[in-house]
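Hey, can you fold this?
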Amino acid sequence: MDGLTAKLGKFVAALEFRSLPAQAVETAKRGFIDCTGVMFAGRGEAVVGVLRESFSFPVVGESKILFDQGQTASPEAALINTTAGHALDYDDVAIDGHPSVVLVPAVLAEGERLRASGAELIAAYVAGYEVWGELASRDADKHHAKGWHPSAVFGALAAAAAGARLAKLDAGRSAHALAAAASMAGGLTANFGSMMKPLQVARAAQSGLIAARLAANGFTASPDALEHRGGFLKAFSPAGRARVDGALAAGQDWHILKHGLNIKRYPVCYALHRSIDSLLSLRSGGKIIPEKVMEIEFSIGRLQAGMLRHSRPQNALDAKFSAEFAAASAVVAGRVGLAELSDGFVRSAPVQQMLAKVKVRPVDDPDPDEPLFSRSDQVRVTLADGTVLSGDPVRHARGHARNPLGMDDLRAKFTDCVGGALTVPRREALFEQLLKLESLAEPAALYGTRS
């Protein structure tokens, strides 16, 4: 009887665009739109420059670097583009990680090399999402709590699945791609709030494509690399309780339909988004004046709090993983946007003074649907006169799959992220192309060229 590695190999090889539920297609397209936007927003970040200055990337005509900054081999293009897409921590989240920022750069890079159609790009994305969801769903214990970064762990196998699907590998070679990627996976939550966080996610995208390309040329790996007692699931499992047998949910009880994508409205850790929504709602009522704030309390889940490493951030990288900064920015600026994620704003006197007034109260009441988060987050603000303002409990932040952004808001974020990198007509054309991705003949059309 087939084990998990073989089952997933068969699933990836058999998946066809025409078999995808309409909602899965729409979710995938949202992922392409959002990730493309944040890739533009992050391509000028220091981590991207350091990466490009540190290595001599091969100059070959396979895949575009950051849309208009040269070409290189597809795995290396995925590495650079994913780094840019995750540098601001503004990309979408789901299944305890960041699926689109791994999958979209990998799919676009390998899809360009293989001249895949838009429909094939979407099928590859869904194949990767389903493999990620399948593996993550087999362990009730949360990898964040152990110190593993799920995006860097599961992302490598998701990218391998996407690459195998684009290359139209058969079931056996698809399984070898997954098995090979299992030995390339890994990343630590200890590196949150540093340049390493986007790079470890980018390595997952790169590794997945390397694994798929090797498998296409006859490279082999263990046929039970996922389910073996020393394999992927057991080795990464926080408590060794991962389920390695049983039927797949992937492609049946679709993971992408169950979880969807949560689009970020703020370029900070998603653990903070519900609290930011609540605090901004209170501030918009006009009752919160920064000078009169005595204390701000965030009640959030214990695992959420564990991701927030920096209580007194001094730069934008640290601020992305700081409840104190999120609260300070919301109160001082009335927003938490790209403009606020600058070293100058983080170190400004009003922000630094507000940091000391913020307290985080971890709660042990996990959401039954998303145990990484509390059942709801809540904010309390105490003013100098003793008045206490309590925000309503928030379970789903704006942009969550169950509280989704409208198309106008998604377009507004895309426009803000792309900024002046493209002319207005070219930016609008790119948005429309991504919106109708299934009708695209090949990825080269996205870049304004055809190979």
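Oh, and this one too while you're at it.
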Amino acid sequence: MVLKWWSVGSIVILGLVWFVLAEQSTVAARPLSVQAAPVAAAPGAPAMARSAPAPASGAVPQAAPAPSGADGAPGRTGEPSGAGLAAPAGGAESAPAVSADVAAGIAAAAAQRQAGDPAGAETTLRQAIQKATRASDAARAGLFLAPLTKDAVEHRRLISAALLEDVVVGSEYDEVGRQLRELNRSPGTSLQGALKLENYTVVANDSLWKLCNKVFPTRFGQSPEVGLVRIVNGLHSDGLHVGQLLKVPTEPLRIVVSMGHHGLTAFVGETAVAAYWIGLGKENRTPRETFVIQVKQEDPAWFNGSRTIPFGDPENVLGTRWMGFEPKDGAHGFGIHGTAYPESIGKDESMGCVRMRNAEVEELFEYVPRGTRVTIG
């Protein structure tokens, strides 16, 4: 009887061992499920084709470059994303095409930065610039290198090169503009060293307005706006004291509008002072022309046909500032202004004018004197 139960128990135990071994074998044979990490698309997609030139007759006729009916429709979509350099925004715009080597370098540097290795990213981007065979490729890589360098002069130079080569795209202008504002807070090295300057020693009864509008034009042949003199000299107010030494820019400020990339840059010589993401005219109504700023107005009224819509009226689309262009044959009533519709920035929704966010047009207004050349292309 004992032998019988021992035999039965042995069979049960052997059965359990067989079951366990078989189950382990089955588990070992199953493949592990691995979720692949997302791969960032390398920069290099072709840039959006630029719009065809607008016919001169597309502008709204106007007797004077006052704020006029040359702007109009409100925006229709959400607020701009404000995405940084890693993700250009602005509709159909995409990163400019670059060579394979440079694109690979930019992508590798982005991965290094994400992994917490900015020094490695800086080295990779410098190597990419050395491999570049086109100025535009080097400028694109330099755009990503700019915030990594500890040299303020090089930082501004790299940004300026990218803007001159027109390789800054869409919402990237927001990030570039932010970097320029940071540099402008400490201009002694990055700005003074890049500009052609003359010295002026403040005397009794001088004010910045008097100097910019009366003294500097006579002495140096230039009429820089108060805001530009302020940032060149690192001034935080308009107050001056006798004996104070001022650095005076002797090259005119100029504005360049990139229609293909929805950007506006203020240059002094080849040096960028400010950059902005902008809105333009629908149906190619923004003319490809070089204009001159003739009028500047704060809190402008809007002359829309026979109607005068005062500042502050919800129907006034001009925002807080107006910089009107001198009329040209067939092109009247155009200018740069703020907007009641900030969601239209980065899009083509105006009647032809250049739209800016109110805070940014107020900033630009302080840098731009009457007579400033505006090249739109």
